Each structure stands twice: as structure tokens, then as C-alpha cells.
Amino acid sequence: MTPMTRSLSTLNIVLLLLVGLTLLSWWAGTNGGFGSRPASWSGIGILAIAMFKVRLVVRHFMEVDQAPLVLRIVIDLWALVLLIALSILYSTAGQHSGVTHWSIVDGDF
Amino acid sequence: MMNSQTQARQPTHIPGEPGLWVFILGDMFMFGVLFCVFLYYRSDDVALFTESQQRLRVTFGAVNTLVLLISSWFVARAVHAVRCDQGDLARKLLKAGIVCGLLFVVLKIFEYGDKISHGLTFFSNEFFKYYFILTGLHLLHLCVGVLVLLILRARIADAAKPSTDLVICEAGGVYWHLVDLLWIVIFPLLYLLK
User: Fold this and answer.
1) Distance between CA B188 and CA B144 in Å, rounded?
2) In Å, what is the CA distance from B48 to each residue of B42, B122, B185, B188?
3) Residue A93, phi-psi category: left (phi > 0), alpha (psi -120 to 50), beta (remainder)
4) Three-class SS of residue B12?
5) Which candidate in B119, B130, B142, B194 could, as Cys together with A104 as Cys, close a disulfide (CB 3.0–4.6 Å)?
6) 3-state SS record for B58-84
């Protein structure tokens, strides 16, 4: 498939997929995740969905699927390394019981 | 043998200018570091970050995500239309993309107003410091993107060299999709991760 023959139906399907994945993340983020144990797996799942969405945008909207191999590899590596780094930072975060530092002028909710 | 190998090889095409990708990759790297820094500071005080996150309205973030995804679709279709010499259609699609971009700005202004009216500012705590840094930098990119789309639309209207227009249109489209993909990561980081 060259850029000239990129079909509009592919763009439509990709948009539907992106919207569906966004709604899934939204639902998981506001309804206690995917019910996984430990709970941090739900967060990692949400991050993985985000990176998959990034890949869809890069490949099909930015048209990187037509680009030279080196560009495809660099961007895939960026997404993979970022997913791993964010997952580690998120899942290893300790629960601190204590001191929170607020400086709110009017914190009335 | 050589000929069959050449035929089997897929043709490649760099969207826009190769130099543009240095900027795009540099920006992606910079935001990647910022995303990691945000989660690094979150690990210092998860309770504070979780409590602060509850002050955000997830609906704003989710609707903005959908608005940007739809705008990206319009812009991707506009590039396709330019490629097919459908200038009128491309201008209409770019206009739709610009409207989506402006809608994002309006929603973000409402969101910032909501936070500030409740006393939640850059100085409230670490979470809101990074909330304003990440969303502010992204908003800056988005405003530049809207400007780029406006220039593209005007340029297509004065089309003199279609091949030049295609390269510029691809480059503008790539930048706009960068704005979209950065928000795709910002949304779960700030609004969804508990």
C-alpha cells in the first residue's frame, strides 16, 4: 500500500478503534480498573492501551507505516521503552500514609 | 535476481521533510522524560497525587481526547484529499480539524477556570504543578498546530505547485498528529491512573 492508495476505510476503522479504546480506558479509569489483582495491573493495562493508540496514530495517521525501517524502529522503541519505564515507575510507587503538601487559596469542593 | 529483490522491497516514503522528524522525535523524547518525571514524583507521595487527581473532571480529559482523535482523522483525510487533487475537500476537512482544535482550547479554558476558581493553581502542590506544566506545554503545541492548519488551508487555496503543497500538507499533518499522540499519553497519566 503506497500513500497514494491508502484507503479511506482504513482511516475510518482506525478512528473507530481509537474511539473504542478511549472509551474502554475512560470506563476502566473511573470504575476501578479491569478488576485485576494486583490493582496496579489495571493501571499498566491503561498505559498499554495508550501506547497501542499512539502506535495506531503513528502508523496510520502520520503514515509512518510507509516510512523507512529506521524511523519505524525508532518510534516503536520510544513507545516500548516509555511503556516499560512508566509501568515500572507506576507499579513500584510506595503508598505514603502521611504528609500531603497543599497550598490552596479556596479548597471548598 | 537483483530485479526480483528490488520489486519485492516495499517502497518507502517519509511524510513531510526528513528534517521535520528530528524536531518530532526530539519533542517526543522531551515529553517522554516529562512523563517519567511526573510518575517519579508521584511515587514520592501517591496519596497526595491520588487525592489531587480526584479534583480533576475526567469528562474534560476524555472529551478532549475524543475531540483530538476526530481532528486527527479530519487532517489525515485532508492529506489524502490533497494527494488526490481534491483541494476543495481538503480545505473543508482542514477547517473541521481547526474547529476541533479550537473546541479543545475552549474546553481547556473552562477546565483551567474551574480549577483556578477552586484555588487549584500551579503552586497548590506537586500534582498541580505537573498538571499545569504538562497540559500547558501541550496547549502551546496545540495552538501552534491550529496556526499551522490555518496556514495550510490558506496555502491550498492559493495552490500553484501541488507537489510542494503535498509535502507541506504532510508536514503540517504530522505535527498535528504529534499534538494528538502526546495528549493520548497525558490523558491516562493525569486523569486515569489511580
Assistant:
1) 23
2) 8, 15, 21, 17
3) beta
4) coil
5) B119
6) HHHHHHHHHHHHHHHHHHHHHHHHHHC
Chain A nearest-CA distance from B83, in A, is 7
Picking from B32, B66, B118, the nearest residue to A107 by CB comes out as B118
Q: Do B39 and A86 touch (CB under 8 A)?
A: yes
Are the C-beta atoms of A65 and B12 separated by less than 8 Å?
no
Cβ pair B21:A25 closer than 8 A: no
Chain centroid, CA B67 distance in Å: 11
- Pick B43's closest partner by Cβ from A15, A46, A89: A89
CA distance A61 to B75: 8
Q: Which three cell numbers stand for residue B138?
A: 501541550
Interior angle at CA A103, CA B35 and CA B42, nearest 5: 25
Decide: A32 and A82 in contact? Cβ < 8 Å.
no
**Minimum CA–CA partner of B50 in chain A:** A95
Q: Which run of H or E residues covers position A88?
A: helix A69-91
What does the CA dihedral A8, A9, A15, A16 come to, rounded to 10 degrees? Answer: 160
Closest CA to B73 of A25, A79, A12: A12
Q: Residue B171's pLDDT band (boundaries 50, 70, 90)?
A: very high
Cell numbers 526530539: residue: B26
| pTM attached to this predicted model | 0.89
E runs forming strands in chain B: none
**pLDDT tens profile B91-105:** 999 999 999 999 999
Q: In this structure, which amino acid lies at residue A51?
A: M
Spatial contact of A71 and B12, defined as CB atoms under 8 Å apart: no
pLDDT digits over A35-45, tens only?
Answer: 666 667 889 99
B15: left (phi over 0), alpha (psi -120 to 50) or beta: beta
